[in-house]
């Protein structure tokens, strides 16, 4: 039986998308784009393994995105897309047990690749050394010059290339080695330049590449997930405010924004006492006029003793979704002298984004002190405040 390894290239900086976080690590329906792509190939019966090419500067983001997945050590990428592809292929050349018979090379920024597209590319490799998923160009194409049209381009025979792009492994490795430094933008171009015939197989229009925030919103819509912005035609824009306090007790960690933070104490409460999630839950409930956290999860009920506060937040978010609304942005401020929040902020943002199905640039976590004043200044506990912005159907009345 032939072996196939999926090589997922995730070494880009995502500069065209904007924002501080590379796009392959943005949240889509609670999971990073990279994880969506990885799981699509891990779940395909014809794929033996998945190897990721990444940027070492993004190691912490990579580790968060792939936690719990059975993956080999990632391969450091290169200065160009072509370099990153070659470095990944070189790793497969030294694969334990020998290199694969075929390789599927996929961009991490295409999170919605489906099993049918993967199967069609693999099937084509039975009769051709290279094959790519592609969709025909259906829009009229215009050539531009000086901000005006300068002619119409004949779209007959034009295709929009997608990934995965499949190859018989020895041939694409040889092509990459021979053409190193040629500045080619995809692996099919490397194969073409090396004289390999490349077959076109039907792709899927939904197998989009996330390049802009609008692309990410479209991916959310395709998954039926809450949209990551408020450009939805929902006219009733609301803001909710939440506030909560918990005192310290004997322990060795505190839960903040769903993240365990090592500390000399824990927070005391009926649940896990995650003061940030409690404040944010109240903010969302307040925005839809649905009472407070205690009315939904009474502390007098034993079943909530020690409960994960993520349950409370997901419940509040589900009430927004049940009314046809979306959460557009959340902002949490933690008020304490210790523990220090900065080293854990990235993990906290990722956790909140995952719980709410938001892009991470729509989640804010901040921390401040009271300059040693009051109970937080005396390090007797932690306070949190949160703001949530949502949109509901209908005009404001």
**Cα Rg:** 25 Å
Extended strand count: 18
* N-C termini distance: 66 Å
Number of domains: 2
- Superfamily (CATH H level) name of the largest domain: Spore Coat Polysaccharide Biosynthesis Protein SpsA, Chain A
Write the CATH fold name of the largest domain: Spore Coat Polysaccharide Biosynthesis Protein SpsA, Chain A
Low-confidence stretches: 226-234
Under CATH at level 1, the class of the largest domain stands as: Alpha Beta
Strand order of the largest sheet: 5-4-1-6-10-7-11
Describe the protein in words.
The protein has 397 residues and is α/β, with parallel strands linked by helices. The chain folds into 2 domains: 4-223, Spore Coat Polysaccharide Biosynthesis Protein SpsA, Chain A (Alpha-Beta Complex), CATH 3.90.550.10; 236-392, 2-C-methyl-D-erythritol 2,4-cyclodiphosphate synthase (60s Ribosomal Protein L30, Chain: A). The chain is built from 12 helices and 18 strands. The strands form 5 sheets. Strands 5-4-1-6-10-7-11 form a 7-stranded mixed beta sheet, with helices on both faces. It has a 5-stranded mixed beta sheet with strand order 15-12-18-16-17. Helix 11 (345-356) links the parallel strand 16 and strand 17. The longest helix is centred in the N-terminal third of the chain and has 13 residues, at 81-93.
């Amino acid at each position: 039986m032939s072996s196939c390894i999926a090589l997922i290239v995730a070494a880009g900086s995502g500069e065209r998308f904007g924002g501080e976080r590379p796009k392959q690590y943005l949240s889509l329906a609670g999971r990073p784009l990279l994880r969506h792509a990885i799981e699509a190939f891990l779940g395909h019966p014809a794929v033996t393994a998945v190897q990721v090419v990444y940027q070492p500067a993004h190691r912490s983001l990579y580790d968060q995105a792939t936690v719990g997945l059975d993956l080999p050590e990632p391969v450091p990428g290169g200065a160009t897309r072509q370099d990153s592809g070659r470095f990944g292929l070189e790793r497969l050349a030294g694969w334990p047990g020998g290199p694969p018979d075929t390789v599927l090379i996929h961009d991490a920024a295409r999170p919605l690749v489906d099993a049918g597209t993967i199967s069609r590319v693999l099937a084509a490799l039975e009769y051709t050394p290279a094959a790519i998923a592609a969709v025909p160009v259906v829009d009229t194409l215009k050539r531009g010059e000086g901000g005006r049209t300068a002619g119409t381009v004949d779209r007959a025979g034009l295709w929009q290339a997608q990934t995965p792009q499949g190859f018989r492994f020895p041939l694409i490795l040889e092509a990459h080695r021979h053409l190193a430094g040629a500045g080619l933008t995809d692996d099919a171009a490397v194969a073409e330049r090396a004289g390999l015939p490349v077959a076109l197989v039907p792709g899927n229009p939904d197998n989009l590449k996330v390049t802009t925030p609008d692309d990410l919103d479209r991916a959310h819509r395709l998954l039926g997930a809450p949209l990551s912005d408020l450009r939805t035609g929902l006219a009733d824009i609301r803001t909710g405010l939440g506030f909560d306090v918990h005192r310290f007790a004997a322990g060795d960690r505190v839960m903040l924004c769903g993240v365990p933070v090592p500390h000399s104490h824990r927070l005391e409460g009926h649940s896990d006492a995650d003061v940030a999630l409690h404040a944010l839950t109240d903010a969302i409930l307040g925005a839809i006029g649905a009472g407070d956290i205690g009315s939904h999860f009474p502390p007098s009920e034993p079943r909530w003793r020690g409960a994960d506060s993520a349950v409370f937040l997901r419940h509040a978010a589900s009430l927004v979704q049940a009314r046809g609304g979306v959460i557009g942005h959340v902002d949490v401020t933690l008020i304490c002298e210790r523990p220090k929040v900065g080293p854990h902020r990235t993990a906290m943002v990722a956790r909140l984004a995952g719980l709410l199905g938001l892009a991470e640039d729509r989640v804010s976590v901040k921390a401040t002190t009271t300059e040693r004043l009051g109970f937080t200044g005396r390090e007797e506990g932690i306070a949190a405040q949160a703001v949530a912005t949502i949109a509901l159907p209908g005009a404001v009345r």
